[in-house]
Write a structure and sequence with these properties.
Elements (H helix, E strand, L loop, with lengths): L4 E12 L7 E10 L2 E7 L7 E7 L4 E4 L1 E6 L15 H14 L3 H17 L2 E8 L2 H11 L2 E8 L10 H15 L5 E3 L2 E2 L7 H14 L3 E5 L3 H11 L3 H7 L7 E5 L5 H9 L3 E4 L1 H6 L7 H6 L4 E3 L12 H16 L7 H15 L17 E4 L12 H7 L6 E6 L2 E5 L2 E2 L4 H21 L2
Bound molecules: zinc ion (ZN).
Length: about 450
């Protein structure tokens, strides 16, 4: 009988598959051929396989890559530029002036740095909203990362495309350019109900319906947003989107901090997906989204970091730890948001939120090979009674040793293979030097 074969065998680790049954294999292995997982099982079942490359997990954890369901990757350029300020001061005096000077090349460099940071902290897929998104798509592709990207659309002129009409043309070009790409998917991304007229929102939504792609939007992020929308339309932001007919299962609503019970019913009724960005909401003092309530209503909630200027890192391991603890403290109930629920949010639910759950989010035969290996031979991960507990409460992004995306090894033993990290850091440092010089000159 011909021996079974694989391109890559990741073996000798606890496999947390995060499949529907939460199957865990204590000494397990995952076989990969081209971009696909071809088998998952006990390591000894693969003894007679012919394998081109063996990756030894050394008794660590093998799991699906984490999925960041909402970020603005190129904002790595503004990490730590301005903290501890009121939202409007932060935006108007610091972020908007810096963003006005962005161009395609700077966004590419910032996004590439974000990809490096995300890969090195266990993220294999991200959903991005920003300017010059073709540069973000190229950065993701060059880094070997999976990404859902979309150009931010709003009523006023954009530093990238100018008037909104050109924004739709730019989005159409993105859709045409990246269709059939194995790593990059395009979404249509109107910024929010407060920066987009109903006509813009409806047009964006219709585009997503004709191409069957996601619509990503900021929704109910803060009290002031809700007040603005109520003043303008006499209803909450969620009611407003329902009223103009742009809520549907392909809509990913980011933040959802300020919701009424009726809003939650609407989100559930239209099967809208939610991206939860706890650390960003905390840092900007927007509040705490009612995530346990949304989960109880059966709403799909993924995890995101939001942009680096409001977080200030892209490490989803730290985000998971925060999310689990924040909601326990809010509810005064330690049983709320258990580790498994939070881990599922950062993997399977994020995948579903992006419409990618038949491809990624768990380790199962036939799915795309997006997986990571965690080194557990560390003081803060010893002993290990429960892998899931460690992943949420004790592990950090820096514990990830190896990352495979779409069957390609992009990091091995913490060495980035797809990127020249020194150059990536140098390029963004140069951009930051220009931002510093410009702010000194304007004083
Ligand atoms: Zn955002």
């Amino acid at each position: 009988m011909k021996p079974k074969s694989a391109d890559i065998l990741v073996t000798n680790g606890t496999v947390a598959t995060l499949d529907a049954d939460d199957t865990e294999i204590i000494n397990g292995a995952v076989a990969i051929t081209t971009e696909t997982i071809t088998a998952v099982g006990p390591a000894d079942e693969f003894d007679d396989w012919s394998v081109s490359q063996v990756i030894d997990a050394h008794g660590g954890i093998i799991m699906p890559g984490l999925i960041n369901s909402h970020t603005h990757a190129a904002m790595t350029c503004f990490r730590g530029l301005a903290d501890d300020l009121q939202l409007m001061t932060w935006l108007n005096d610091h972020i908007f002036p810096a963003e006005a000077k962005l161009d395609d090349q700077k966004v590419y460099s910032g996004a590439l740095l974000a990809c490096a940071e995300m890969i090195m902290s266990g993220t294999t897929c991200f959903c991005d909203m920003y300017l010059f998104e073709d540069a973000v798509a190229r950065a993701a592709k060059d880094a070997g990362m999976r990404a859902v990207v979309g150009e931010v659309l709003y009523d006023f002129d954009s530093p990238n495309y100018g008037p909104i009409e050109k924004g739709f043309e730019y989005t159409q070009t993105l859709i045409n350019t990246w269709k059939d790409d194995p790593l990059v998917t395009i979404a249509v991304e109107p910024h929010s109900a407060y920066l987009c007229q109903p006509e813009l929102l409806k047009r964006a939504f219709n585009l997503t319906q004709s191409y069957r792609i996601p619509m990503v939007i900021h929704l109910a992020e803060s009290k002031s947003e809700v007040e603005q929308i109520k003043e303008r339309y006499g209803r909450t932001p969620v009611e407003h989107l329902a009223e103009i007919g742009v809520l549907a299962p392909n809509v990913l609503a980011c933040h959802c901090v300020e919701l009424t019970e009726d809003d939650i019913d609407l989100l559930q009724c239209f099967d809208v997906k939610v991206a939860h960005n706890a650390e960003s909401n905390m840092k900007l003092a927007s509040g705490v989204a009612p995530i346990p309530r949304l989960l109880n209503a059966g709403i799909c909630v993924g995890l995101g970091t939001d942009g680096c200027a409001s977080n200030n890192d892209l490490d989803l391991f730290l985000e998971m730890d925060t999310v689990a603890k924040l909601h326990k403290a809010m509810a005064l109930d330690p049983t709320v948001m258990d580790a498994r629920t939070v881990l599922k949010m950062a993997t399977h639910h994020s995948a579903r939120a992006l419409g990618l759950n038949s491809f990624i989010g768990s380790l199962e035969t036939g799915k795309k090979a997006d997986l990571i290996v965690i080194d557990t031979h560390k003081p803060h991960l010893t002993p290990m009674y429960n892998a899931v507990s460690h992943l949420v409460y004790a592990a950090r992004g820096s514990d990830v040793t190896t990352s495979i995306i779409n069957g390609t090894v992009v990091m091995e033993d913490r060495r980035l293979i797809s990127l020249d990290l020194k150059k990536v850091i140098k390029d963004v440092t140069k951009i930051a030097d220009e931002i510093k010089a410009a702010s000194l000159n304007s004083r």
